[in-house]
Amino acid sequence: MKTYTLREAAKKIGTTARDLKQWEKQFAQWITVPRTSQGARIYTDELIHRFRQIRMLLEEGHHPREIADLITQMNGRPADPPAPVEPDVMEGEIIDVPRLLRHGAPYIAEQLVARVKDELVDAVKREAADTIQQAMREVKGQLNHLGEQTSAAAETVRRSLQDYQEAWQQKTEQLHEHLETVVAFCHEEKARQEQERKQLEQRIIEREKAFRELVLSFRQTAANTNAGRSRTNKWWKFW
To answer: Which class for 103: exposed (0-12), middle (13-18), buried (19 or more C-beta within 10 A)?
Structure first.
């Protein structure tokens, strides 16, 4: 019975090795791919035929569940997988011994490079995924820390504004009290000055009145004293 490697089977089916692995997982209850003792997949003509049927049904737009039922109806349950092949070969290497002898070391090297490449790509992907996750965790941690610092700074600013508002309100109230005191003092001072002005005016009026009375009394006295004098002497009229 002729067998094929993963890459040879993918080439014969007209798909990729990744699709074959994916279909193997999706239809594991209906298709079983045997492996060697080293873990390399072994494909027979029957398995290649079934994978061709899967590819055709997928291209026609059938759902994987429908495809599984159709495969069971067309081919029945797959037989138990054959015993592992004992030759110490790796995946990607053909199991046909005459062909292996024909190709020799260059073919083995080619298959080795292909397998190492796949493993290297998978390792790089895993490393990249881990690095991205680690970076995302660090960024998330930094964002959380920044958010905490921002909240603390906002709280500090809020408290400072509140303290400033309270201090400003207190200063404003004190200023109002001082202004009220100054206004009251000005009113009192104005009333006192008005009272003093009125008292001064009253004193001036009284003194003017007293002075007029004094002048009038002096005139009367002078007139009575000089009544007998000559009429030609008019000096007292000066007053």
So the answer is: middle
Calculate the CA 71 to chain-centre distance.
Answer: 52
Segment 152-178 mean pLDDT = 84
The predicted model scores a pTM of 0.35
- Identify the CA nearest to 71 among candidates 48, 85, 53: 53
SS3 192: helix
**SS3 state of residue 16:** coil
Whole-number Å distance between alpha carbons of 233 and 235 = 6
97 pLDDT more than 70 = no
| CA dist 78 → 57, 65, 68 (Å) | 18, 17, 12
Place of tokens 């994978």: 51
If you search the block for the tokens 């009284």, which residue do you land on?
A: 206
- DSSP classification of residue 43: B
Long-range own/partner contacts, residues 126-134 (CB < 8 A, 24 or more apart)? none
CA distance linking residue 220 with residue 214, whole number of Å: 10
Contact predicate 78/30, CB 8 Å: yes
